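Long-time lurker, first post. I've been practising inverse folding by hand and with some scripts of my own, and I keep getting stuck on stretches where the structure tokens seem ambiguous. Below is the full token string for one chain I'm working on. Before anyone asks, I'm not after the true native sequence, just a reasonable design that respects the backbone. If someone could post their per-position residues I'd love to compare against what I wrote down in my notebook.
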């Protein structure tokens, strides 16, 4: 999984909230940290990225623009999750063609569920339900 922000504390917060096993049926995940838009594009172009988590507030190039660029330029683009400042900014994520959003600060209860769902969708696996018995 790729996490992008120009701020190391944002990348760290995402990694901490999601962890290495976002769900019992997903993981372990490996993290690739990027601090520039060019690093994101190069990493996705190389392949092997299953999910991009992009900071919409990143400077000088925000994750919203990078997400939109990836969706337009990369065949079989991995899912994009955009970090937004407020719920009201979700319309920007829609513009960027992101599959999901999380708000700052990253909620450690919501983030793993959101990430696991996107990774399951990418792998074509159904969600795991609780076992009876």
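-- Answer (accepted) --
I ran through it position by position. Result:
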């Amino acid at each position: 999984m790729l996490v992008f922000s120009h701020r190391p504390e944002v990348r760290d917060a995402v990694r901490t909230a999601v962890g290495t096993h976002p769900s019992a049926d997903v993981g372990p995940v490996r993290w690739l940290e990027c601090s520039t838009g060019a690093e994101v594009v190069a990493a996705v172009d190389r392949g092997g990225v299953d999910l991009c988590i992009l900071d919409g507030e990143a400077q000088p190039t925000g994750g919203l623009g990078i997400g939109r660029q990836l969706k337009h330029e990369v065949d079989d683009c991995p899912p994009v999750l955009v970090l937004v400042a407020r719920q009201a900014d979700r319309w920007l994520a829609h513009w960027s063609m992101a599959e999901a959003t999380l708000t700052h600060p990253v909620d450690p209860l919501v983030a793993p569920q959101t990430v696991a769902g996107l990774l399951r969708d990418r792998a074509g696996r159904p969600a795991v339900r609780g076992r009876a018995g």
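A couple of notes from the structure itself: Confidence is low (pLDDT under 50) at residues 127-133. The first strand starts at residue 2 and ends at 4. Happy to go over any region you disagree with.
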